[in-house]
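Q: How would the structure tokens look for this protein?
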Amino acid sequence: MTKQITIELPDSDFFDLARVAQADGRKVKDLAYLLLAEGLRFFYCETPLAVKKLASEFTLKEKEQLKKNKELEDSKGWSHLSHKQKEEKGYEYVCHYHHNDAFLDPLEARIRQAALGEEVF
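A: Here is the predicted structure in token form.
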């Protein structure tokens, strides 16, 4: 399944963008893909980003740890334990977010592949 992004530009701006694409030997659509991919990288290079993970994005190890953490958190006296004591019982923090490069690099690669037909490794 695919989704479509539409942006509205004045005719003169679209014409100028088409001229840039032509000068670079590209179609406007392909240039737009590349600008989006590159723009993601540069916009967030110094801006922190945290994207909440979907349930399907947790690894099996993380899912098992989350279950274990929940059981520990529900145990009697848990809230009175120190952080060290909690870790000794097997508690490990599991991050619920993707951060900058770990999330954006694969997204950028997929967008770039859509424009260029390149393989993503």
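Residues 100-116 form the longest helix (17 residues).

Helices lie at 11-23, 28-43, 60-73, 83-88, 100-116.

Upvote if useful.
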